């Protein structure tokens, strides 16, 4: 802990000396984009298809003053109950902060951990992989393009680690994770009470660091949501296997289990699997739902930072829900087919959408082209199901009815 401790005294003093000069008086504004975003949440999606507020919210998060920075709740809990012998992932892979803006809105900040051109090593397990800020940004744009609208808006931003994070730190626990590197760059690391792992730190250049800002959802007291274990979650040990990985008929069990006896929830699971396959995310162990909407409500597609790690790998097992259940929602099927056409190619639509983010080159070209390749594989899996079971048994309307595409629908896509 020599490097961080020797430099912390200087950084803490610097923050205390300057903190009052940079705090802007906070005021609640009911017309603020974050509040309007909360008001637009419905049973079907986080925001309407024609919402104008989403773009305003993204621009707002990318530019509005930060007046407070804090550790997220799960990190605070880890600091209280940390047992390094029980933690598989190295300290530092979950590096994130909660930031508050001058109009009282909040967002989750995830810093840049991996360069755009760097692929995750094939020897790295999905549960110890880095979280990537650009994956959060790209996942939001893809979710919107697919018309799911289940990922909270995400904006890229270049942050001054000293003025916007350290000087705005809410307590000493957060201040303690900042240090100066040998190159005099301001750095930040994830802290366990028994370790001081600066080798997992992220550093500014010397102060500036890019990251993603994910808009907060309403508080649990206003809109309670609960976490549900993904029935197709992977084993989080080095050798274990889950039932779905060894039983091709696993979906039959899922269909007889609450809440998947509700066909809408089961079809939403297919959407989630397709979404995760396109971004290459193998780390979907849970998903969240709003309790107010019951089993008919949509599933939140949150925490996507482990996507877009390897553009050269198409992990087909992510699609296990689709090829084991042989089900897909009609609206999703039509949208995927549309995005496979040359004039609406998914990579082109993504490239255009991402160009509006404040950060340049959110995804490299190989990652964009991988989306087209993976989309073709999704279509192939569904078409194989159709050949085996018939279109009327595979393509379903959202309520669960058979939805064999009419000739007019087929011509439309």
UniProtKB/TrEMBL annotation:
- Domain FAM20 C-terminal, first and last residues per copy: 178-394
| Entry's Gene Ontology molecular function annotations | ATP binding; metal ion binding; protein serine/threonine kinase activator activity
Q: Where along this sequence does the record place binding of Mn(2+)?
A: 303
Principal localization?
Golgi
| Positions of the catalytic residues | 283
Q: Which Pfam families match?
A: Fam20C
Instruction: Name the cofactor(s).
Output: Mn(2+)
Q: Which GO terms describe its biological process?
A: enamel mineralization
Q: Name one GO cellular component term.
A: Golgi apparatus
In the UniProt record, the signal sequence range is: none
InterPro entries assigned: FAM20, FAM20_C
UniProt keyword list: ATP-binding, Disulfide bond, Glycoprotein, Golgi apparatus, Manganese, Metal-binding, Nucleotide-binding
Superkingdom, taxonomy of origin: Eukaryota
User: Which residues are listed for ATP binding in this entry?
Assistant: 110, 214-217, 303
The similarity annotation says: Belongs to the FAM20 family.
Protein name per the record: Pseudokinase FAM20A
What gene name is listed for this protein?
fam20a.2
